[in-house]
What we know:
Layout: H1 16-32, H2 35-44, E1 49-50, H3 51-57, H4 63-75, E2 79-84, E3 90-95, H5 97-127
Antiparallel strand pairs: 1-3, 2-3
Amino acid sequence: MVSPPDSGPASAGPSPECAATIALVRDVLARVGDKWTVLVVTTLGDGPLRFTALHDRIDGVSQRMLSQTLRALTRDGLVTRTAYAEMPPRVEYALTPLGRSLGDTVAHVVGWVREHQRAIVSNRERFDGPDGEATPGDGGASSPT
């Protein structure tokens, strides 16, 4: 069997290493961007919690969704699950150092939202206004009130 001629240094598509990195970035962004992940990470930022206590502190999360989120975070190494051999059995969830670093990043995003919330709300109101579409403007800078 004859091989096709080499097309030279410019090949179509990213290298396998680059493609693997892109896939991982996409997967991690989906995990980190999930609202339940953000809420679990910020809630566990105060220290380890049992499942029920964690569930009670995160408004609106179902037990099933919390369980799935904790499993995914444990798989990614962001959360540890510690089972204690006592009666009744006790399980605690805590952030790993990697999970704490994500918590720091989430805190920066929350700070950004707080800093810019006036502009965001103003832009939303203008967009949702009677015209139903954003008007050309300054891209979000709010005027002093």
